[in-house]
Design brief:
With 494 residues, the chain is α/β, with parallel strands linked by helices. The protein contains 18 helices and 13 strands. The strands form two sheets. Strands 1, 2, 3, 4, 5, 6, 7 and 8 form an eight-stranded mixed sheet that branches. A five-stranded parallel sheet has the order 10-11-12-9-13, with helices on both faces. Strand 11, helix 16 and strand 12 form a beta-alpha-beta unit.
C-alpha cells in the first residue's frame, strides 16, 4: 500500500490543481486517495489509545495561524447550513493557498487553521513562503468578505493571520499526523489573535528570516503568557520586489569588514575595470559551499562598484530554493527587479510595469506598437497572461517560438541598455536557478559577446553537477572558488 506521506503529497498536488482541473475531477480523484490514506493510518496505528504512533521530530519551522474574524456574530445571523458553507469555503480556499506555497495544514479548530512550513524538508525560504502565504490568505479573505456581503448582506467577515518561526515537536501521540507541540505554536496563535482584521502579524524571529523581502510596520512589544520577555512583532504591508541580498544572512545588526577574500575581490574588480575600459562581454562565477561568503563577497563588490567614477547599469536576480521548478523564474526575477513588480502585485499592475519598462527601451527604434508587442511576448514567456495580445495570440501555444522570441527580446533589451552605460548583471544562488533561465544566460553569452556586459554569479558546486559546461572555459568564463578560511583568518573574522 502506498506510504502515507506519498498519499498526502498526491492529495496536496491534486488540490493545488483544483482551479485548473475543476472541483468534480479533483473531488473524485482525491476521494480514492483519502480512502487509501485513512486505511493506511488505520492499519499502521498502534491500536491502543496511548500508543506513541510515529516517532517525534524536533524541527525548526515557520508556524502559520489563520483565524476567521466575525464568525461568531455571523453565525447568529445565518442559518447553520449557510454558515457551514461560508466557513467550509473559507478553510478550503485557505488550505489550497497554504499547499500552493508548499506548506502543510496540520489542524483545523472551528474557524481557525494551523499550518507549518518546513515540516518535512527544511528550506532556506520556509519563512518567506509562510509570509507570502499569509498575504495570499488576506487577499482571499477580502474576496470571501465581499462574497458574504453580496450573498448574505452581512459585513464584518474576514481573516487575520500570524506567523512565528521557532522549534516545535512534530508527530507522536494518538493523532500523530497533525500533532505539533511547542511554544512556537502558542506565539503564532497570539500573532494572529492580536493582528487587526485582514492583517498579518509576524514575530521578530520570522522577521529576521525575511527582512528585506517585505514592507513591514514595527509594533509595540507584545506580552505573551508563558514568554519571559515581551515579543517584538511587525505588521506586514506588502511584498517588495524580490530582495536580492537578504540581510538575514549573517549576524543581525553586524556587518564586519571582509576578511581573507582580498584576492577574490580584486579579480572581480579587474573584470569590472576591463568592462569599463574595453566595453566587452565578460562572465565570472563565484563558487563555494554554503557559508563560504559568496553573497557577502558579491555585496562587497557591488559596494565598490557604486563608489567608482565609471558608472554602469546594475541588473540583479536571485534564485530561490523553489526556483528550479519555476520555468524562467530567474529571468522573471531579473525583470521584476528592474521594472519594480512583485509576485504579490495585482496582475494587471505587474503587466503594466513590464509593458512600460520594456517599451521604453524599444520604442525609439521600432515604434510604440512593436515595443509593446515585445513586452507582451517576453511577459508571456515568464508566466504573465498576455493571450489577449495580438502579438502573442498566434504563438501562445507554441512554446518553442515563444522561447526563441522571448530570449531574443531579452538579449536585445540588455543590448539597448548597454548603449548608454556598461551593464553589470549580478546573479545570486545560481545553483537554485531553473534550467530554462540558465539556458538564457548561456545564449546571452553567445549573442551579446560584443556588448559591454559583465555577468557575475554565485553558485554552490552542485550547479556544475547539473551543468558540467558552466564556467568550463577559464579564458572566457573564469570560476573563482572560495575555500574555507584558514585558522588565522577565521580567528580574525571571529
Amino acid at each position: 500500500m502506498p506510504d502515507s506521506q506519498h498519499l498526502e503529497a498526491a492529495i496536496a498536488a491534486l488540490e493545488a490543481q483544483r482551479s485548473t482541473l475543476g472541483d468534480a475531477v479533483v473531488d473524485a480523484a482525491a476521494a480514492a486517495l483519502r480512502e487509501k490514506l485513512a486505511q493506511r493510518r488505520q492499519d499502521g496505528s498502534a491500536g491502543e489509545a496511548g500508543d506513541p504512533g510515529t516517532a517525534q521530530q524536533l524541527r525548526q519551522v515557520s508556524v502559520l495561524f489563520m483565524d476567521v474574524v466575525g464568525s461568531t456574530q455571523l453565525s447568529r445571523q445565518l442559518d447553520p447550513e449557510d454558515m457551514h458553507g461560508v466557513l467550509d469555503g473559507t478553510l478550503a480556499a485557505a488550505t489550497r493557498i497554504v499547499q500552493a506555497h508548499q506548506g502543510k495544514v496540520l489542524q483545523y479548530a472551528g474557524d481557525s487553521l494551523l499550518a507549518v512550513f518546513g515540516a518535512e524538508h527544511a528550506a532556506e525560504d520556509d519563512a518567506e513562503r509562510a509570509v507570502h502565504a499569509g498575504l495570499a490568505l488576506l487577499d482571499a479573505g477580502r474576496s470571501r468578505a465581499a462574497l458574504v456581503e453580496q450573498q448574505h448582506g452581512r459585513s464584518g467577515f474576514g481573516v487575520r493571520v500570524g506567523v512565528h518561526t521557532g522549534d516545535v515537536l512534530l508527530g507522536g501521540g494518538v493523532s500523530d499526523a497533525g500533532n505539533i507541540r511547542g511554544a512556537a505554536v502558542h506565539i503564532a496563535a497570539r500573532m494572529a489573535q492580536t493582528a487587526p482584521p485582514l492583517g498579518l502579524r509576524i514575530s521578530h524571529d520570522t522577521w529576521r528570516q525575511v527582512r528585506g523581502a517585505f514592507e513591514v510596520e514595527v509594533q509595540p512589544p507584545l506580552a505573551i503568557k508563558g514568554v519571559d520577555e515581551p515579543v517584538t512583532s511587525y505588521l506586514v504591508q506588502r511584498a517588495r520586489p524580490r530582495a536580492f541580498r537578504l540581510p538575514a544572512r549573517g549576524i543581525e545588526g553586524l556587518e564586519t569588514r571582509i576578511v581573507g577574500r582580498d584576492a577574490e575581490l580584486r579579480r572581480l574588480q579587474q573584470a569590472y575595470e576591463s568592462l569599463c575600459l574595453g566595453g566587452r562581454f565578460g562572465a565570472v562565477t563565484l563558487s563555494g559551499e554554503a557559508g563560504q561568503g559568496k553573497s557577502r563577497l558579491l555585496h562587497e563588490f557591488e559596494n565598490w562598484v557604486e563608489a567608482q567614477p565609471a558608472r554602469c547599469a546594475v541588473w540583479r536576480a536571485r534564485a530561490q530554493p523553489r526556483s528550479q521548478t519555476q520555468a524562467y523564474g530567474l529571468l522573471r526575477d531579473m525583470l521584476a527587479w528592474r521594472f519594480e513588480f512583485a509576485d504579490g502585485d495585482d496582475p494587471a499592475a505587474a503587466r503594466r510595469s513590464l509593458e512600460e519598462g520594456v517599451a521604453a527601451l524599444f520604442e525609439a527604434d521600432v515604434g510604440r506598437a512593436i515595443a509593446i508587442g515585445n513586452a507582451h511576448v517576453l511577459g508571456h514567456l515568464i508566466g504573465m497572461d498576455f493571450r489577449g495580445s495580438r502579438q502573442v495570440a498566434g504563438i501562445a501555444d507554441d512554446g518553442t517560438q515563444i522561447r526563441a522570441r522571448g530570449f531574443h527580446i531579452a538579449a536585445q533589451m540588455l543590448r539597448r541598455v548597454a548603449r548608454n552605460a556598461p551593464v553589470l548583471l549580478l546573479l545570486d544562488d545560481l545553483h537554485w536557478a531553473d534550467d530554462a533561465s540558465l539556458d538564457f544566460i548561456d545564449e546571452l553569452a553567445q549573442v551579446n559577446r560584443d556588448v559591454a556586459l559583465l555577468i557575475v554569479g554565485t553558485a554552490r558546486p552542485q550547479l556544475y553537477e547539473r551543468r558540467p559546461t558552466w564556467a568550463a572555459d577559464p579564458a572566457r568564463h573564469p570560476r573563482i572558488t572560495l575555500d574555507s578560511l584558514d585558522a588565522q583568518r577565521s580567528a580574525e573574522l571571529a
